Sequence to fold (470 residues):
Amino acid sequence: MPETASRVVTRFAPSPTGFLHIGGARTALFNWLFAKHHGGSYRLRIEDTDRKRSTDEAIEAILDGLDWLGLDWDGDVFYQSKGAEHHAALARELLDQGKAYHCYCSPEELDAMRQAARAEGRPVRYDGRWRDRDPSEAPDGIDPVVRIKMPQEGSTVINDLVQGEVTVGNDQLDDMVLLRADGTPTYMLSVVVDDHDMGVTHVIRGDDHLTNAFRQYQLYRAFGWDVPAFAHIPLIHGPDGAKLSKRHGALGVEAYRDMGYLPEALCNYLLRLGWGHGDDEIISIAQAIEWFDLDGVGKSASRFDFAKLENLNGVYLREAEGARLTRLVCERMASEDGQTPDESAVERLGLGIDGLKLRAKTLNELVESARVYTNQRPLTFNPKAQKILSEEAIARLAAVKPALEALENWDESTIEAAVRDFAESAELKLGNVAQPLRASITGSNVSPGIFEVMSILGKEECLARISDVL
Fold:
């Protein structure tokens, strides 16, 4: 952290060329938590300088994904494209100071340079041929780029807050382009200028950016600015150890929302992908803010595991407030069915949600099990329920129905006692009566305890559903 900085400032800087993918979400989370933990601020910058690939839809997806995760940013969203002229002007200042120069290499020369390096087994780097040449030697018809003069001796050392001390020889750093031939700034220039202008004290990002850090470090030095602290987080891999791909779970955050995960469960899971606090697995946002620091981030890649995420989501579902889950379930039903459950169905769902959430691992599972309270008559029966409702089973339903009709108190224990009494008098096992009741009342072979379901549905609805079968 620069000595002159009095307050931590972090940033998340996605490129709006697609959705907010899961790796980006974790980077945003770590930046957000680090800023919160240290009482600082967390900024959002949209790096939209690639105008051909950047889209408004992608920007909206990123903002929506961060909002759903609860990763609110401080201040206005910073759009990198709006600072292009400022970035370019600073590069021209370096040019005036002799810290940068015009390079007049043609595309053919650069291609030949690359091919020669590959043929000799050398890394592909610009060879500096225009570094000290007189611009009067420039060929006609070539619009020059502007390159920074990198140090050619010694080494660049970064004391990375995750990776530790990392060193690269300066002879490995070629003179990178700051301004393209059309005068527009490159990503490397814009990132450094924006981080400086935003007062960023800590650059926390994926370790695929580590090689960029050495070049950016030298650019800070050229400008005479304080260099922020760097922290490069290992990437997320698939369960097989390979780079995370769509088949592993490299999807947009909205896909996880659609699959029925709660945002707090996803945040908890992403937090544990590469960071730890003892043996703690279930970590609330409040605890995460209190505990999070970069010394808890590991140096090795993490492996994404859907089974662990699903189990963790089940824990959060069980802890979630019934009213919130009822609302979320009704919203999903409205989206899937094209209509919102009616008032009586919502009321029944509210009574039954605490029993349902004990058996679900995702909101999607909860929605399906919740239909026992919201489905309208006549019910649709799944194949197993249809098989249960044999002629013999229907006869048992007809026989037990009068006992149910006679009940004055319609609660779980009273219903169960009545059905048990009937089964004993008919010399039947309880399941021989309970299973036909479940099939006729829920349309399925599985549900929460059938007597709990019957109590919540109410006497009139249950008897009507049994009558539909009879």
Summary: Residues 1-5 have pLDDT under 50 and may be disordered. The longest helix spans residues 22-37. The CA atoms of residues 178 and 189 lie 6 Å apart.
